[in-house]
User: Fold F-box domain-containing protein from Urochloa decumbens.
Amino acid sequence: MTTIPGRPRKRHRITLPPAIPTIPDDLLVSEILTRLPASFLLRCARSVCRSWRAAVKDPAFIRRHLELSRARPPAIIAISLPPTADDDHDDDEEEATTTTPPARAAVVTVRAAHCDGLVAVTTSTGVTARTTVWNPATMESVSVPTASPNAGAGHFTMVTSVAVAIGFDPSTNGYVLSRFFYRVTSAFRNAGTLVVEHDGVGHEVLRIGSGAGAAGAEWRLTEDAPFTIDDTVPPVSCARGGGAIYWAAMNPSSGDGCGEDAVDDDDDSDGDGGGANVLLRFSVRDETFAAFPLPPGAGCVGRRDRVTELAGELCFARAVAPTGFDVWVAAAGGSGGGEPEWSLRWHVDFYRPVCFVAPLAVGADGVLLMSVDDEDVYMYDKQNRVLEKVADVQEVSRHVRWNWNGSRGEDDAVCSSCSAVRLLVPCVESLVSIYSCN
Assistant:
């Protein structure tokens, strides 16, 4: 019997695919998670794993995330107020369909200061004032104590003037609220006008982010402001140059103010524009004041001028004609508050009468975004000489709404229970906490 040998078995070599490279956790956190929007991190990243939750809360992560957010154009927040019984309803149809009850007290003034994603909103009824610090990205908020322990008996505090600023202290990685008050010696009326005489301008700060937010903090006295502060000009906080807050002030030795330099409407023929003829730079770290001159040719902060922050630097939008504006930017003076160097960045002509222009943001290509009369948002491309209206403020949808009574909500449509938008606030998206150290 013949045996037929079997065929030799074929051997198949199986080639495994190369292993997928894994991203080290430290690189994933520092270079990828820090570039994600704060809203995504809060909704998703914290629910993925324990290490990610810890990373998002780490102060180093928060600072890195903020650094990258500053390099992107900020979000623009539209702030409006609840309707009051005194609101005018010119549109009969709108009046007939409005069912929202009026607010209890009429808010006559609203101001908003911003720094690193924190917004300090102060409202005043003319008698009382309320300040709330709010992070629109994290929805953290805290009310600021109104009473001042530093004004003293018989002194008139400027709390109701809603002039509250917020700034960053790089030495502590904390945030500071700033406000002032007058040490009044007498107050009387002259021909129906209130005349207040004082012997000094006190200044106080309140530090937040120390573990108790602002609710458990107290206003602390600093050195006095050297000049009378004009609270009709909102203060401005700039992150560059060591962290500083700028107040508009009136230096009696610097001339008579605007004089003939003012370019105002006919109803402001005296041209004094409020009287502020100098800026006071308050160093958040050193808690000291230094004079900061206005741009060349600006005798004062006119009624149609605006002092703002633009990409971390001080900005001055000056009306030079009924239709035209010069936009100046000051280089950071450094931590010691050195001499500023103003430079003229843009000249914008609308070819129609415009009351005021408030710069909001600037892109990497130098395109300027600005609010015009708090009604429209315009974009100006200097290189291509293009001026374009990009939004009507009253028609902008607001995704996040602050209800002013302490509650929050989301609204993808125009808030029908709010009156007209009062002001626009540029705000970077950040994870900065109001309650803990950053």
